[in-house]
Amino acid sequence: MTDEAIETTYRLLDNLAGRLRAIAAEDSRVAAALLAVDLAVWELEDSGIGLLPAAARDESPGGSRPVGTDPRSILDEAIQLLAPTDASATDALARTRAALHLTEARAALDG
Amino acid sequence: MADRLSYGTVMAEAQRLAITAMWRPRPEVLINRWRAEEAAGAAAFLGATGRHLRFLAAGIPRNRIHDLAETIATIGAGIQEIPSGAQGPWLAATRTLLIAHDLLAAQVGPELGPRGPDGHLLSRSDEVTVAAGRVAELLLTVSQWARVTAGPGFRPMVPGYRPPTTSPTNALARIATIASAARAAADHAGARRLSAIDDVTPLLGDTQAAPLDQSLERIRGLLYRLTAPSRPIPPRHHLHQGCANLAVVITGRLGELAHTAASTSNDDHSAALWWRLSQHARTTSDHWNTLGGRLSHMRSFGTAELLARRALAEASSDYQNATRTPSGGDQHELGAALTAARRAALLLPDLAAFSEPAVARLARTGAMVDAIGTRMDGPATAALSGVYREIEADCRALVALCLTVPGAQPLAGRARALAFIDTQPDLGVAANPRSSPAPPDGPGL
Fold first, then answer.
1. Which of A43, B223, B273, B368 could be joined to B300 by an S-S link, Cβ 3.0–4.6 Å?
2. B249 and A35: CB-CB below 8 Å?
């Protein structure tokens, strides 16, 4: 996965978080999905994605490894939650889902 | 399920062991050996108790607890000479009491400065006095037991002979003299039974605790550590955004469960209480969500926190597992889920209280800017702090409401302290539940 694809993933996740936040207070499952997406965004930013310079990367041991949340399962859950209310979000999520291969992204970053 | 490992549960066990030791049957023969063992055991227990009371009293203004600690020190000095041989069942009581002491002592440093999220409790006079008052009550019982065990006054067969100070009878008679100081300290503590100190858990966690308990305490410990003003570089704002999101998860689910409880409650009074809790949880959830949205537009420099990310993800997952209810509406399962949700609600005031100064610090130092890189000015920073403080007040009121609904509140001592129940008794709990709006569909189930 290229840096550009990772950047796109980051943008899409950030966008997804905004959409989830709009309805998070109505359903605790959506709130939980929002937390997971926000943690994934945070993790990507710590890896140097977003507006932060590379100097802000987490250089601690294990700092660039996944936190145990699989963004693909987060997205699957989010798609199910949003499907009844937000068709465009569902499309965006489906595209993100197809593009997201975090293991490869991680390998690219670590490499 | 085993008791949680906390200061309160360990002290209760020490108390049980001490009472068991006092109730040991008196033997028919070898009475002197038995009395020597009792004296040595009770003296060691008294010494450990005195040490513990001195520690408890060190951080609060002088009161009857200090008097009792000094009385014990004076009495202890006089009985130190007795041979400390076998201590019988007292040994287990003494060791258990010292474990409780160590568990609490880990929360503060050598100069009594807090080293964990509960360290500040040891400087709260009201909480310390209640905890120490219970120790005083136990010592009152010990003193009465010592008076009886010492037996009638020593009658020398040789006129003018005085027994050595090392005699067990003498030691027991000295222990009996703590009665008045112990009674005064116990009276000073009053009738209140619950102290937030009872709910202090091991600083480094309890691996035998339920997963949700472990997750929530881990978040508390991490937040306390990561937001300490002494840290040269604070964590990025994502930590606080994650905390806000977790708060939305906790309050949202609590609101849903309380709503279900209100709808299925058998009586109007309970239904009204659940309904009020449900409404407040949803309002609080909205406020946290708005705050999280505000933070999501920010950028910041600071340390990245892998452990905190993992802890937030685990807490959310454990919370959802613990509050999952079957679709069939099983009341037992609903009760268990509500207990877990009420337990998690105790984290909310800490999330706000720990995050506020850390976020303000990021903003004040220019380490946090908005999406286009504009630094927050003084009024904007103050406004953000104000939002946090309002949310903290919301969360404390939510905890107060958790104490009003049917069923036991987990960590009730901590809950009362968080809700300021004992310092501001007119908060929430005292309100007439009948004045609350009725649930929408009427209870009657």
1. B368
2. yes
Nearest to B415 by CA among B325, B259, B427: B427
- Most confident option among A83-92, B175-184, B251-260: B251-260
pLDDT tens digits along A14-48: 777 887 888 888 888 888 888 888 888 887 777 66
Q: Do A21 and B296 touch (CB under 8 A)?
A: yes
Mean pLDDT of B128-140: 94
Same domain? B270 vs B336:
yes
Do residues B216 and B350 both lie within one domain?
yes
Percent of chain A whose predicted confidence (pLDDT) is above 70: 33
B289 has a chain A CB within 8 A of its CB: yes
Cβ distance A43 to B313 less than 8 Å, yes or no, reads no
- The pLDDT tens digits of the residues spanning B33-76 come to 778 888 888 999 999 999 999 999 998 999 999 999 999 998 87
The ipTM (two decimal places) reads 0.78
Q: What is the pLDDT of residue B81?
A: 59
What does the alpha-carbon distance between residue B3 and residue B139 come to, in Å, rounded to a whole number?
Answer: 24
**pLDDT, tens digit, for every residue of A77-86?**
666 655 555 5
Q: Cβ of B309 under 8 Å from any chain A Cβ?
A: yes
Show the tokens assigned to B103: 């568990």
Print the domain residue range for B31: 7-198
The answer on B174 and B234 residing in a single domain is no
Condensed to tens digits (0 to 9), the pLDDT of residues B225-277 reads 999 988 888 899 999 999 999 999 999 999 999 999 999 998 999 999 999 99
Check whether residue B223 and residue B180 sit in a common domain: no
Contact B313 A52 (CB under 8 A): no
Please count the other Cβ atoms lying within 10 Å of the Cβ belonging to residue B440. Answer: 9
* CB-based contact, B314 to chain A, within 8 Å: yes
B163, B198, B233 — which closes off a domain? B198
Residue B214 and residue B259 share a domain: yes
pLDDT band at B371 (very low <50, low <70, confident <90, very high): confident
For chains A and B, CB pairs below 8 A equal: 96
- Looking at the fold, whether B252 and B147 belong to one and the same domain comes out as no
B248 with A27: Cβ contact below 8 A: no
DSSP 8-state class, residue B235? B
Distance CA B267, CA B244 (A): 35
B282 close to A (CB below 8 A): yes
* Domain range enclosing A99: 3-110
Total domains in the fold of chain B: 2
Indicate if B181 and B270 belong to the same structural domain. no
Degrees (nearest 5) of the Cα angle B292, B219, B345? Answer: 70
Q: Is residue B65 part of a domain?
A: yes
Angle ∠(B212,B217,B220) on CA atoms, nearest 5: 130
**Is any Cβ of chain A less than 8 angstroms from the Cβ of B242?**
yes
In-domain check, residue B2:
no
Q: If DSSP codes are grouped into helix, strand and coil, which group holds residue B393?
A: helix
Boundary-marking domain end, from B198, B223, B257: B198
B293 lies within 8 A of chain A by CB: yes
Together in a domain, B263 and B352: yes
CB-nearest to B316 from A17, A32, A58 is A32
In Å, how far are A83, B76, B195, B308, B344 from B414, measured between CA atoms?
41, 34, 7, 23, 12
